Amino acid sequence: MKAVFIGPPGAGKGTYASYFSRKYCIPHISTGDIFRDEIAKGTELGEIIKKYIDKGELVPDDIVIEVVKKRLNQPDTRNGFILDGFPRTLNQAKALDEITQIDVAVYIYVPIEIAIERLSNRYICPKCHRIYNLKFNPPKNDLRCDYDGEKLIRRPDDEPEVVKNRYKVYYEQSHPVIDYYRRKNLLIEVDNSSSAEIVVVLLEKTLIERGILKLKPCNPNVSIR
Ligand code: AP5
Ligand code: MG
Ligand code: ZN
To answer: Which residue's CA lies nearest to atom 48 of ligand 1?
Structure first.
């Protein structure tokens, strides 16, 4: 399955991409995670993109497209992949069409009030990128990752003021991508306002029934949390 998971900040793209990646053993490619790693490592690219990410602005298309092109060239993408947070502009969507044909665009959305509330409780593991939520999916041990014990962190761009700007940028620049895939008949829409356990079952069922998800699970007992 070659999928893109798109939608506004805090909608749940990473949460669901991680679930399908772990269950079906296809790579979860989050441009946001790739960029945060570059910033943490202090690379030249990290230096360039930090100013955009901290303000909630988009990283320029040429940089993002180059990063994705390189990643999709890796052999682990042969059986499929999930792109999380890419494409985010029409230019990026057209560039992706030049690289490969995707099977589905999953549009995940929640109202901004729910996103702000969820993002204010989000912690992430900087090592393995797992996503936690103090209310919905808390870590077992005091702010340490359940899988590798790494100290969990908050994202600097999760402050409510930056989240509001990310939403503004989303509606101005990224929302047209939804229509782009709707016109191509590739869009599946997911309202993630309710419980993730229910939402994921419906999404998985839809993907299987429509013949988009044909892979056999490599880890059948994966849970959303
Ligand atoms: P990115 O990291 O992609 O951020 P984003 O798009 O703003 O989305 P988030 O990661 O905040 O939310 P999510 O939808 O993944 O939600 P999650 O699953 O964590 O991008 C960051 C920045 O990088 C951008 O601002 C930009 O600067 C740059 N960038 C990245 N890609 C780019 C591109 N293509 N072009 C240009 N620039 C780019 O869920 C949120 C919380 O809710 C979690 O705590 C989760 O546990 C919880 N949760 C999820 N579902 C439920 C549920 N049903 N019930 C209760 N809680 C839930
Ligand atoms: Mg994310
Ligand atoms: Zn971890």
So the answer is: 12
